[in-house]
Design goal:
With about 425 residues, the chain is of the alpha+beta class. It is about 45% helix and about 10% strand. The chain contains 16 helices and seven strands. It has helices spanning about 15-20, 70-85, 95-100, 105-120, 125-135, 150-165, 170-185, 215-225, 235-245, 250-255, 295-305, 325-330, 330-340, 350-360, 365-370, 390-410, and strands spanning about 30, 35-40, 45-55, 60-65, 260, 265-270, 290. It has a four-stranded antiparallel beta sheet. It has a three-stranded antiparallel beta sheet with strand order 5-6-7. A hairpin with a 5-residue loop joins strand 1 and strand 2. The longest helix is centred in the C-terminal third of the chain and has 20 residues, at about 390-410. The radius of gyration is 31 Å and the shape is elongated.
């Protein structure tokens, strides 16, 4: 066999000896006849044996040894042995790892490895990601060896996630799964990266949040019927607090008892508990202080009384030292919707509700933005420096009074334009 430059494309021991350790200007690699074995020669005469073959649908090249430490006979035997693995649809590079104690992980084991070695240290709420995996990844796929998964297999897994795409979070789940596998590969516990060739958006559409602001009748109905639901007392209070403050459930989940000054009626939310507060370059530079309406103080005192966790406001039933999982709080709304036969709404919708209804009642936009913990931009950025406690206290008081009115009787609910102070 002859290459384009006229060089004989075959390998012999004599030829390798003649080239080894000497200046070399010939072709950079020589293929062994009828084999996937190549000898790669550097300009300084260093000779490396390599295998070049299509493995699991992808052209791959990898090193098997150096000449003369590995003889040509040994290299040919290794190439023949590896070819048998390739013909069976397996990656021969795994064999050496397996023989040296490497254990190929399943999808489920890869997620566990990422969770224990990376997510627990670097994620604020890693359990919510695990819950998403458990809810969206078909159980049978969790037992599959990742080193046996081709791009086609990953595509089928993504399709399974798409079918379970309740709530529109399938794309996030796929993206997080890719993060898991990249971490495992970079940590040396996984090899194959066939998933990288696939585009997640081909399998799931991006989540489009549904704008939902509850109306006064719905808010009054929820407050009246809460005691008639199967919710435990803690969760009833969580609903009231989210409705009053428009806070994220994660802010409540991470809230510590020490964050509440009931004498001065203030709730301090550390910047690391605010969304984006721990991101590098975050615009959030200080904690958020929310006034606590006087009528809400008894509910927080009640949480102090019924809670068994002496550090956090809310008790985690699975751990006496860890905060409650925010994803479990997010599910409270689903229970209420089902029991009271309401149109769908989420705990997060209380944020949109308070932003919409307070504005309709005459509350200045910068006060609402401060209450929600948003970083203001443009002409309103000047308000980021002020805590605006008197304004927040006033409008939270107005809001609590209106909620109380709507709770008493929905027949008394009138147009919000008539409620402006």
């Amino acid at each position: 066999m002859v290459n384009a430059r006229g060089y004989r494309m075959s390998i012999s021991h004599k030829k390798l000896e003649a080239m080894y350790g000497k200046p070399y200007t010939g072709p950079s690699e020589i293929k062994d006849d009828d084999s996937s074995l190549y000898a790669r020669i550097s300009p300084k005469g260093k000779i490396t044996f390599q295998i070049k073959a299509v493995i699991n649908g992808k052209l791959s090249r990898y090193k098997i040894g150096n000449f003369p430490e590995m003889t040509l006979k040994q290299a040919r035997a290794k190439a023949e042995e590896d070819q048998e693995w390739i013909d069976k649809g397996q990656d021969p590079r795994q064999r050496g790892l397996l023989s040296s104690g490497f254990k190929a992980l399943t999808v489920g084991e890869s997620i566990k490895y990422w969770y224990e070695n990376n997510a627990l240290k670097n994620r604020k709420d890693p359990q919510s990601t695990i819950d998403a995996f458990n809810g969206l990844i078909p159980k049978e796929w969790l037992r599959i060896n990742v080193e046996q998964m081709s791009a086609v297999d990953w595509g089928n897994l993504y399709k399974g996630i798409s079918k379970n795409n309740s709530g529109g979070y399938g794309l996030t789940c796929i993206s997080e799964l890719r993060t898991v596998m990249r971490y495992c590969i970079s940590s040396g516990v996984a090899i194959r990266s066939d998933f990288e060739t696939l585009k997640p958006s081909n399998y799931c559409e991006r989540y489009a949040p549904k704008e939902r602001a509850l109306d006064p009748k719905e808010l009054g109905f929820i407050l009246r019927e809460l005691p008639n639901t199967s919710l435990e007392e803690r969760n009833e209070i969580v609903v009231r607090l989210c409705m009053v403050f428009g806070c994220r459930v994660n802010e409540l989940a991470l809230a510590k008892r020490s964050h509440f000054d009931l004498k001065d009626r203030l709730w301090l939310v550390p910047k690391e508990n605010l969304k984006g507060g721990t991101m590098r370059g975050s615009k959030i530079t200080k904690p958020l202080r929310r006034p606590i309406p006087e009528k809400i103080v008894p509910y927080i005192e009640r949480l102090f009384t019924i809670g068994t966790n002496k550090e956090y406001l809310l008790t985690n039933r699975r751990s006496i030292i860890k905060p409650v999982n925010s994803s479990s709080l997010s599910k409270i709304s689903g229970s209420i919707v089902n029991e009271l036969n309401m149109n769908h709404w989420t705990m997060h919708d209380f944020r949109r509700t308070i932003a919409t209804r307070l504005t309709d009642m005459g509350c200045p936009p910068h006060v609402t933005e401060k209450l929600l913990g948003h970083v203001m931009r443009g002409t309103m950025a000047v308000y980021n420096r002020s805590e605006m406690l008197p304004d927040l206290d006033h409008w939270l008081g107005v809001w609590v009074d209106k909620l109380e009115q709507w709770q008493v009787n929905d027949e008394n609910v009138v147009e919000l334009s008539q409620l402006k102070a």
